[in-house]
């Protein structure tokens, strides 16, 4: 096997792709059961939770079982890491979009793409700080807390900190999510996931 | 190579449970619960802070996110030995599987329960600082705390059984979806098995609900733990039977689990003004603020007859000769952290309630509308009145004519002598009180 393929195998990418496809299928199934054509607001659970699940899948794929060995490599790691996170985030955003077609100005494709990128950014940053396998925890806590805590708030500072719950046209929410994505991706590309050999 | 002599007095090793409790992931799990719940409660503080019943409802509803989080934390801890590759090593120790299971599962269960309790304590302190009567409502707290610990224990079993990296986030998400679906369902037997069963601020649970919830969630968790780790797995039947019995009781009782709060049916009134001002007995200390916000209206209504007896603030429609007080609950609209805000709008809405707001709108002729506008402009002008007038002044000829008429009527009412105005207002309220719009005196 050549370099890229070996890299993909070592990061369990086939399993990750299967899990992302499963997430997308679940989102489409759940969206069909919500009768969202009556009211786009009913899509909020999908818009908030499908990206969260996708980001958890991406986060756990950042784990490297041979971390110490990786460090001895001659080639720089950052292009591979960057390609992995950005590529998976783009793919996940593409995959969860069919669940929420239409209603682009409220809770449609733009909001779910924004949430996927934002959640992936938080998860990537958490992989650097906590380790890849526990990287789902901060995003899960944050998104669920905002989900219950900010229902219906769409003005002022809430449009920034409650970005996972905002309609797709809110510029403050986009800015917050893209900042999280840029920071998280850059941090992961530079540092890589936290080594986890010695701890549980 | 020499072997060091063993020390004479062996140092007593700390209990394994203590080491597991103070180190590793367990304190981190407790902190994660506190942080998540704290962020959620801080973000929504306007809708619960200052009301004891609202606070209790909010921290109980927060189980919707804290139970999946606790289960995921337990699941993460359950997969620890697999991640470390120490499963075989553990099989060589003399302790039984159940003891080994409890030694790593109990600390997380204790910490997530403690994290929940700390958050509830902070929320109660926050409410205490601006409460307006009533007292702490802790009826659901024991059941909810046990549910948190039970979720962590169940998650631990799942983490031991399911050998995948994605087990914890998947369990969190599945728990969230299941609880969310049950919470949104509102009806059907299964929704009463929901540990995060929505409780309104005007409802109180039956006294035995926390104990039955404990049996339901705790029984399931114990059954899962015993079935996984006990030497005699048949012992799991006992807690399972308790859980089934408790679950059956919850489903059978159904809507009877919650009943209307008797306190919410009573009210506290200030009868020194007319109409008397009443607020619900759940927040009696708010009465001075409400009375003061309405003092402008009641001052101008002194000596006017045919008014409703009081502004009432209790569940259900106002009785005969009563007007509804603008709704103070849900918190976050007129009342935020024990303070009445937007007093001008509150007074304006209270005046609207006085003048037969329930009457069928088709009977409202232009003459009545002009009289209504003059009365509300005199008693408590709407904060939006200036903007509405400005829009009409910039509108077409019909709007400008209406505006001229309204302004003239306002000026006539304001320019009346005190006695004449009292008579006019008495006649106006007599007509508007029983929806007899024909009797509304002209201006």
TrEMBL record, chain A:
Keywords: Membrane, Transmembrane, Transmembrane helix. The chain crosses the membrane at residues 12-32, 44-65, 85-104, 116-136, 172-190. This is Uncharacterized protein. It comes from Streptomyces lucensis JCM 4490.
From TrEMBL, chain B:
Keywords: Membrane, Transmembrane, Transmembrane helix. The chain crosses the membrane at residues 25-47, 59-77, 98-126, 138-159, 166-186, 206-229, 236-254. It comes from the Bacteria. This is Uncharacterized protein. It comes from Streptomyces lucensis JCM 4490. The lineage of its organism: Bacteria, Bacillati, Actinomycetota, Actinomycetes, Kitasatosporales.
């Amino acid at each position: 096997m050549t370099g890229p393929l070996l890299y993909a195998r070592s990061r369990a990418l086939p399993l990750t792709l299967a899990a992302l496809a499963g997430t997308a299928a679940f989102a489409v199934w759940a969206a069909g059961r919500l009768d969202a054509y009556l009211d786009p607001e009913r899509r909020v659970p999908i818009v908030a939770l499908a990206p969260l699940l996708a980001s958890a899948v991406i986060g756990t794929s950042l784990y490297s079982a041979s971390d110490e060995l990786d460090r001895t490599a001659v080639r720089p790691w950052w292009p591979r890491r960057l390609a992995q996170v950005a590529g998976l985030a783009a793919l996940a955003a593409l995959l969860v979009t069919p669940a929420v077609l239409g209603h682009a100005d409220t809770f449609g494709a733009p909001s779910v793409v924004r949430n996927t990128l934002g959640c992936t950014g938080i998860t990537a940053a958490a992989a650097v700080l906590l380790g890849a396998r526990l990287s789902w925890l901060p995003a899960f806590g944050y998104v669920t807390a905002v989900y219950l805590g900010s229902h219906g708030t769409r003005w002022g500072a809430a449009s920034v900190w409650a970005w996972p719950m905002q309609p797709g046209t809110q510029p403050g929410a986009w800015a917050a999510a893209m900042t999280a994505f840029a920071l998280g991706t850059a941090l992961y590309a530079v540092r890589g996931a936290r080594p986890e050999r010695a701890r549980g | 190579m020499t072997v060091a002599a063993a020390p004479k007095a062996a140092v007593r090793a700390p209990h394994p449970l203590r080491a597991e409790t103070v180190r590793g992931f367990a304190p981190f799990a407790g902190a994660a619960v506190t942080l998540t719940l704290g962020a959620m409660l801080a973000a929504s503080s306007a809708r619960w802070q200052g009301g004891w019943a609202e606070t209790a409802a909010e921290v109980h509803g927060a189980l919707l996110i804290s139970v999946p989080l606790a289960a995921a934390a337990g699941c993460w801890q359950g997969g620890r030995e697999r991640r470390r590759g120490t499963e075989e090593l553990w099989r060589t120790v003399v302790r039984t599987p159940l003891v080994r299971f409890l030694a790593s599962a109990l600390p997380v269960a204790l910490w997530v329960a403690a994290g929940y309790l700390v958050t509830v304590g902070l929320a109660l302190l926050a409410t205490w600082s601006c409460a307006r009567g009533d007292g702490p409502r802790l009826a659901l707290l024991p059941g909810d705390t046990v549910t948190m610990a039970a979720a962590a224990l169940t998650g631990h079993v799942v983490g031991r059984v399911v050998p995948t990296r994605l087990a914890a986030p998947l369990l969190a998400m599945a728990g969230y979806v299941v609880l969310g679906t049950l919470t949104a369902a509102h009806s059907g037997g299964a929704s009463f098995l929901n540990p995060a069963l929505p409780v309104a601020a005007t409802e109180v649970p039956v006294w035995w609900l926390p104990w039955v919830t404990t049996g339901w969630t705790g029984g399931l968790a114990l059954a899962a733990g015993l079935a996984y780790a006990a030497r005699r797995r048949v012992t799991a039947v006992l807690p399972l039977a308790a859980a089934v019995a408790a679950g059956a009781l919850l489903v059978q009782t159904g809507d009877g689990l919650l009943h209307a709060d008797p306190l919410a049916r009573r009210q506290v009134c200030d009868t020194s003004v007319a109409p008397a001002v009443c607020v619900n007995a759940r927040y009696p200390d708010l009465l001075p603020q409400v009375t003061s916000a309405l003092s402008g209206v009641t001052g101008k209504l002194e000596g006017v007859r045919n008014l409703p007896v009081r502004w009432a603030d209790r569940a259900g429609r106002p009785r005969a000769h009563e007007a509804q007080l603008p709704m103070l609950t849900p918190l976050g609209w007129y009342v935020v952290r024990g303070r009445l805000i937007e007093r001008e709008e509150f007074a304006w809405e209270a005046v609207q309630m006085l003048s037969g707001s329930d009457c069928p709108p088709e009977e409202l002729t232009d003459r009545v509308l002009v009289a209504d506008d003059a009365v509300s402009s005199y008693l408590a002008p709407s904060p939006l009145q200036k903007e509405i007038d400005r829009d009409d002044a910039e509108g077409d000829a019909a709007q400008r004519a209406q505006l001229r008429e309204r302004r003239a009527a306002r000026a006539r009412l304001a320019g009346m002598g005190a006695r004449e105005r009292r008579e006019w207002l008495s006649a106006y309220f007599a007509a508007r009180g029983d929806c007899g719009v024909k009797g509304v005196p002209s201006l």
